[in-house]
Design a protein that fits this description.
Helix content of chain A: 10-25%
Distance between the termini of chain A: 7 Å
Radius of gyration of chain A: 18 Å
Number of helices of chain A: 4
Largest interface: A-B, 33 and 33 residues
Number of domains of chain A: 1
Shape of chain A: elongated
Largest sheet of chain A: 5 strands, antiparallel
Oligomer: homodimer
CATH topology of chain A: Thiol Ester Dehydrase, Chain A
Strand content of chain A: 25-35%
Structural class of chain A: alpha+beta
CATH superfamily of chain A: Hotdog Thioesterase
CATH class of chain A: Alpha Beta
């Protein structure tokens, strides 16, 4: 059974619904995107020339090899799961909004910075609630390559 | 160079911006989701117990092994690229909204049904425009496992 921390001490991660408030921020580790990984993901899930082949990509709207947006989303998720969003019960999303303002290139090093936007206890389920989190995925220049606003199911402390 | 089809004949795919109108629908092929594929995707991109291990998943909110939502999104993309959304220039998304109303289970067979919601020529770039497409990913029972509303960049006919 999980209990609340002693009064006056800040809660330790993983965070339950009760520990979260708008404005809280989390930063993930960093992941380097290798060219072979870009092509392997694309071959399995997004087999388009600009994700698979440097020459075809150079002639495309991207002007060079670019990761699939779904690959960027998947790497972002791994960074969040590996500590970038230390929520109790894991990361269970009901849905999200995604945008890819800039392509991810071979060799990019990605980091995810997240901020809690809203915390809403469930009316029908007293053991949980919904937390809205905005996550920006940044490259090594600090440029935003993906924004995600996700609604996550988070348990309350028992 | 691509030219418009003869007057009076419906355009053949792949479809340019000029060929698209709200209400047009496309249906993809079908993809079966194998348990090993669920676990392999999760190991790489969403390493949480309910995506990796049957026993841990049985005790979780999912009540059994479930595919990562990002895996469902990636499979949906593959089905769209392989013919489920026959758009000229490929499928280049600026962003989207996603929801996962129901888990994807081992052995599920997924199909994507898409509908054009809006077609908007670019004001600044006369060679292209933005098309809003709603794609529902259905399992073999016809239940919706993912909805996606995506904004896609689509070229105009020359």
């Amino acid at each position: 059974m999980t209990t609340a921390p002693p009064a006056g001490e800040p809660p330790l991660p993983p965070y339950f619904l009760d520990d979260l408030a708008p404005g809280q921020r989390f930063t993930s580790g960093t992941s380097r995107v290798e060219p072979d990984e870009i092509k392997a993901f694309a071959a399995s899930y997004d087999p388009q020339p600009f994700h698979l082949d440097e020459q075809a990509a150079a002639a495309s709207l991207f002007g060079g090899l670019a990761a699939s947006g779904w690959h960027t989303a998947a790497i972002t998720m791994r960074l969040l799961v590996e500590g970038g969003a230390p929520l109790a019960g894991g990361l269970i999303g009901a849905g999200c909004e995604l945008a890819w303002p800039r392509p991810v290139r071979p060799g990019d090093e990605l980091t995810v910075v997240s901020e809690v936007l809203e915390v809403r206890p469930s009316r029908s389920r007293p053991d949980r609630g919904m937390v809205t989190v905005r996550s920006e995925t940044l490259n090594q220049q600090g440029e935003v390559v993906q924004t995600m606003v996700a609604k996550l199911v988070v348990p309350r402390r028992a």
